[in-house]
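Good morning C.,

I know you're traveling, so I'll keep this short. The sequence:
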Amino acid sequence: MSISVLILTLNEEQNLPACLDSLAWCDDIVVLDSFSTDRTVEIAEARGARVYQRRFDGERNQRSYGLKEIVFKHPWVYLPDADEVMPDELRDEMLAIAADPSRPEVAFRVRFKVLFMGKWIRHSSLYPTWVVRLVRPEHVQFERDINLRCNLSGPEGRLHSHFLHFSFNKGLNAWYEKHNEYSWKEARESLKTLDAGKVDVAGIFALDPVRRRAALKDLSFHLPFRPALRFLYMYILRRGFLDGWPGYVYCRLLTAYEYMIVIKMAEIRRRDRGLPI
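The tokens, ready to paste straight into the viewer:
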């Protein structure tokens, strides 16, 4: 038994060919496009993908629509981003799972390697980060509008292999544009967490890296000097300096992103109080 694939796209002509080439073994690739104005749709169709288009209204809604409204050929669906590449060992591991109907899991998490300046950014990227990528659609619900969290109606597993993440392929200008948009969504989610006033203190010390990462993220919303603390955490405590110059640049970029979130949180608060910006 094989696996279906769902890829969300918007102007991904630069990333999509490598992603699709690494999925050439798959006989059911679906591209859910947000009305791209470049050659994304042409590239997808030329490689045999089924293309659907839907106006983008948030990642949670778009991904939920793709999983719930589109009919897939196979029970398992892989969910790569367009800037990700699947190595053969990950393909083989997933196909072995799909071929075993006795597996109790309804989803699997996968680690990834961030590639920047031709180098695996192992330390600065907070490796290993585990993300849900292989799912049975009927068992998945998403939370948050950014950096989605998954609610599963069954057990989850973890895969041994990695995928490769080329998040800077479009260049730094595109990276800044994307994170300028992301930071607004992250600022709103941060304020929701602050207003709720809850922190999973036990989760900070949990052995489960997914729970620990979520708890640390929620804790960070309550801390002053978040951008500086993030840089120190990534570059010093997590030994980002071992990644050399690419690691330093990567940490500075993520520090800038954190600062964008903080100042936008302040702007939202001021607007809510009717104060000038």
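Safe travels,
E.
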